Amino acid sequence: MTVGRALSVSLQGVDGTTVEVEADVGRGLPGMHIGGLGDAAVAEARERVRTAALNSGLTWPKTKVVVSMSPASLRKHGSAFDLAIVCAVLSAAARDAGAQGRLSRTVLLGEVGLDGTVRPVPGVLPAVLAARDAGVKWVVVPRANLAEAALVTGIGVGGVATLAQLWRWALTGDGVDEAADPVAVPGPDVPDMRDIHGQDDARAALEVVAAGGHHLFLTGPPGTGKSMLAARLPGILPPLGEREALEVTAVHSVDGRMSDGGGLVTRPPFVAPHHTVTPAALVGGGSGVPKPGAVSLAHRGVLFLDEVTLMPARTLDALRTPLERGEVTLLRARHQVRYPCRVQLVLAANPCPCGAAEPDECSCAPGVRRRHLSAVSGPLRDRIDVHLPIHPRHAVLRPEPGEDSAAIRDRVTEARDRARTRWRDRGLGEIPVNADVPGPWLRREAPADDIAMAYLQCRLGERTVTQRGVDRALRVAWTLADLAGRGTPTLDDVARACELHEPATAGIPA
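Below the sequence we write its predicted structure tokens.
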């Protein structure tokens, strides 16, 4: 008896586990059984791989075939196991020592068509990362996924277009396509800050938000530029580092959003779902294999929720835990998946239902205005570092453009570098932005100067700010100090931070 073996990867979110596929060709009535907790796509591989092999001119055994995928307790989803299944069976039938040796130490990813073509599958990037971390030295993927797989260093990558080409490589060790040097595919064009005329306070606040990684809540009448400001935030964020780019690209790969070139995502993403978005579409979910939601697709970038007061409270409150933890964990009866979601949240809303341009033109009663903005719950509002009202009178028509995004991005990058160095020197490790510094540690180890802390204590005693609000004000104050090149936040920094943290409901009469 000869058992054929090949390797593949089972994905749970962006985490992967190496799977060993074994095939036994023995006595019995012709047929094929696949075990190992596979889903419908895995079960359907029985006829798919057999037909693909025959149509490729390969010999398929006319006896009983048993395929086992281990660990057997791990749920396995999708058609990416096709190549490993068919090669394990062919290896068991051929009893070729060379093929068995190569296949037993190679991860195979890909779906086969009935004509023997090898088709692309989602999730190749995180699967190759998992294979490399498991010590695998070689992986073969569909030719269409080759550029994506080549983004991972430290592992050999080959591509195939047909099952016949793959089996020829298994027998001889030659014939797979080699990957070209990986390239970064430019993302969509990002609007420039120079297009914003006036709104100096809003521009300055947006720079603070970008430098510190803070969440932002924009309020203002229709047409004052809330969406325009939000769309320009990614353009003043620094480019993604290599590790961050791999994280973002892995999420996009699982969701099947990789570009045709399969390049690395190097710009912070910008995701703006409609206000009718469901909780599952926002944080992730769905039947079968839970898919990443908008908050994970915006990982390391910006999640923009316009008309946020029209969104159901249940949908908005689903963001509270992901924003705090920086990841989403989706539980199912037999498994769980994890997706990262370190985002900058930007909310936008009209200040009242009527949307009047000026307060004296508003026909809404104070209670109506308060209820309108209270659609965003207090706990979620308290997680927002910066609340920024946008006033139409601050927008001007002038021919000269404002400062461009590149100049602002340079200052933002310098401020982030200053913060990263400071937190590393103080023993916090790699903290990329001030918004990620733990609040208790910040109050204990990195407070503002004595006068500024006394001011915060006074605000806390007057109940004009919560304990979480104190932490967020300190984080914003550190960002203001970083932008100004100061070593410690001053009273002016803390006062400005408290002003920026004040919610839009604060000025509405009770």
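The chain is about 40% helix and 15% strand.
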